[in-house]
Structure of DUF4440 domain-containing protein:
Amino acid sequence: MENKRYPLPPFTMETALQKVQAAEDAWNTRDPEKICLAYTVDTEWRNRTDFVNGREEVKQFLKDKWERELDYKLKKELWGFKENRMAVRFEYEWHNAEGQWYRSYGNELWEFDENGLMKKRYASINDLEINENDRYL
């Protein structure tokens, strides 16, 4: 039996906003061990052109991500929700090992199980090279 991850669906405006804020806060820790617990053991992801299946693959994906995307800072915004699904807009800033900064923009579609764990995450993301002094996150 998996733990519950509150708030649970079906979402209201208040609980949908709480869920998005919790995801933003968790991802900004850059802690794959903690973050992966918000997903079902058999979670299904599409992230850019990567397909990730299961909590263990999520954990490894996030470890690899933050080895490349340094000083990562994320902001998420709820765009819509219905029952156990959400649409979220996000942007994040990071730099690579050579010091080039990026702002990455995208949209995510989320689907949750009855325990409030995310079972599906589909993300489309674009990157924009920026100067360090153009950062705002």
